């Protein structure tokens, strides 16, 4: 055997280091070596790699290890397959889109998490353990028993031990909000919300013939006295709050105020829709409002904002059985169920711990990006160190729409405050989303360009744009 290993070592590709047991998974060691060779020039576009079986024999590893290494290298866009001719080093990919998208709130890709492997392993476990027929049929009860039990596990850090029978599994938070509006209000009713709020609320309310009335907010969120006055004046039946790392202002309502808002809900017998997608990303957030007024709050927690957007699964807690029945009926009127395969994958990840690992990676990456934004946007930064976005109040010489247009012409997409206006007015600010650009270096470049733009006056930018325009 020692002679065989000597022969194998002598025939190893020059770019490949010897594998070490203390440097992480071997497939990642191989992929990292490939990447270093491409970046260092010892492997060039068009070079043919050894067949997988040959390389596995040379390294004295199993074929699966090399297959996973090549798959990882393809994911990094280092390799391309050419059928029977083999595997080759890929030519550099040209970035066709010059737009740096800072307009969409999505979780950033966490460093050190092999998402492809996590997805493959999760789906493999689902298909191995589940009744495959149940993954391809209707689920009429708001999710399977196992999905609702996983939801109770996921919500335990926020709400403690729950009766999983009180949960509904939904295809995302937007569907949940729309169904709650249908279930808990009637056409023409008023829905109370903060002046700057999630635009999906307004979209759903408008479609269903409900009216959004803005309730004054300050640096701590919705003002309790103003909520009470609005309840008295409008006889509202529903209020909407996004109390943790609020979208878009990044405000987290403190515990004392949450208790006050819950008390008003009890006194006026209104329902609060507590849309809380960022609670698990926040640093020591207060208890949800639902803990202070359990029977008056419908609590929504979506996985799309803290794990990955493609996982269109939200857990909704509605304690009152009659209201839960109306909610389910409303949900079925336009979105019968969460896709069973997605729900089963979410359940698998929650129960085997993968979701916690992914969440920890997203949280760490979000913190790094928040620090980057704070450093690059010094003096204007309004983020609070948590969540996926920054709320940037603008200097008086820019207005939000004007800056958004100027940023777009400079290849950067941001969202002006008007998109979030729930009342007649709007603050002069933009939301900057930190997760939608995968590469941290490109995000840094975009924030630097945005910072330079903010330092200019609009007329200076217009003159510069005109002078650089092509003839």
Walk me through the structure.
The N and C termini lie far apart (71 Å). The chain has 3 domains: 2-89, Arc Repressor Mutant, subunit A, CATH 1.10.10.10; 100-107 and 355-466, Aspartate Aminotransferase, domain 1, CATH 3.90.1150; 130-352, Type I PLP-dependent aspartate aminotransferase-like (Major domain) (Aspartate Aminotransferase, domain 2, 3-Layer(aba) Sandwich), CATH 3.40.640.10. The chain contains 16 helices and 16 strands. The chain has helices at 2-10, 26-40, 52-59, 63-75, 115-129, 145-159, 173-184, 199-207, 224-234, 255-268, 321-332, 340-352, 354-376, 400-409, 440-455, 458-468; strands at residues 79-81, 87-89, 100-101, 167-170, 190-193, 211-214, 217-218, 221-222, 238-241, 271-275, 297-302, 314-317, 389-393, 412-413, 415-416, 429-433. It is α/β, with parallel strands linked by helices.
Number of strands: 16
For the terminal residues, how far apart are their CA atoms? 71 Å
Please tell me the total number of domains: 3
If you compute it from the alpha carbons, what radius of gyration comes out, rounded to the nearest whole angstrom?
A: 26 Å
Large-scale geometry:
globular
């Amino acid at each position: 055997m020692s002679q065989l290993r000597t022969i194998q070592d002598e025939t190893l590709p020059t770019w490949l280091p010897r594998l070490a047991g203390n440097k992480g998974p071997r497939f990642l060691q191989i992929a990292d070596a490939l990447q270093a060779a491409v970046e260092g020039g010892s492997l060039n576009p068009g070079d043919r790699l050894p067949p997988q079986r040959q390389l596995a024999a040379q390294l004295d590893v199993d074929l699966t290890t090399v297959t996973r290494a090549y798959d990882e290298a393809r994911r990094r866009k280092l390799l391309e397959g050419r059928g029977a001719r083999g595997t080759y080093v890929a030519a550099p990919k040209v970035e066709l889109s010059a737009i740096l998208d800072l307009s969409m709130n999505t979780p950033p890709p966490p460093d050190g998490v092999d998402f492809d492997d996590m997805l493959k392993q999760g789906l493999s476990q689902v298909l191995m353990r589940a009744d495959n027929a149940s993954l391809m049929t209707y689920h009429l009860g708001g999710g399977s028993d196992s999905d609702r039990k996983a939801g109770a596990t996921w919500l335990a850090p926020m709400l403690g031990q729950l009766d999983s029978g009180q949960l509904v599994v939904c295809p995302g938070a937007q569907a949940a909000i729309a169904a709650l509006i249908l279930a808990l209000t009637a056409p023409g009713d008023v829905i109370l919300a903060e002046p700057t709020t999630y635009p999906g609320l307004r979209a759903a309310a408008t479609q269903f013939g409900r009216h959004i009335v803005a309730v004054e907010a300050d640096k701590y969120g919705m003002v309790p006295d103003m909520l009470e006055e609005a309840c008295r004046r409008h006889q509202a039946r529903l209020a909407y709050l996004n109390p943790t790392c609020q979208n878009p202002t990044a405000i987290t309502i403190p515990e004392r105020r949450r208790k006050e808002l819950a008390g008003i809900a009890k006194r006026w017998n209104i329902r609060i829709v507590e849309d809380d997608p960022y609670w698990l990303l926040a640093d020591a957030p207060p208890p949800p409002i639902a803990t202070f007024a359990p029977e008056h709050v419908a609590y929504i927690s979506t996985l799309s904002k803290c794990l990955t957007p493609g996982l269109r699964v939200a857990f909704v807690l509605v304690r009152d059985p009659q209201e839960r029945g109306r909610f389910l009926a409303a949900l079925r009127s336009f979105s019968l169920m969460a896709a069973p395969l997605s729900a089963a994958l979410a359940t698998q990840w929650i129960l085997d711990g993968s979701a916690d690992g992914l969440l920890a990676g997203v949280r760490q990456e979000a913190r790094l990006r928040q620090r980057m934004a704070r450093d690059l946007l010094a003096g204007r930064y309004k983020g609070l160190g948590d969540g996926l976005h920054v709320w940037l109040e603008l200097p008086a010489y820019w207005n939000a729409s004007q800056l958004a247009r100027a940023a777009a012409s400079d290849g950067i997409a941001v969202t002006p405050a008007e998109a979030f206006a729930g009342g007649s007015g709007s603050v002069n600010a933009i939301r900057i989303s930190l997760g939608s650009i995968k590469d941290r270096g490109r995000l840094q470049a975009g924030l630097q360009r945005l910072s330079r733009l903010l330092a200019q006056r609009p007329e200076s930018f217009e003159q510069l744009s005109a002078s650089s325009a092509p003839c």
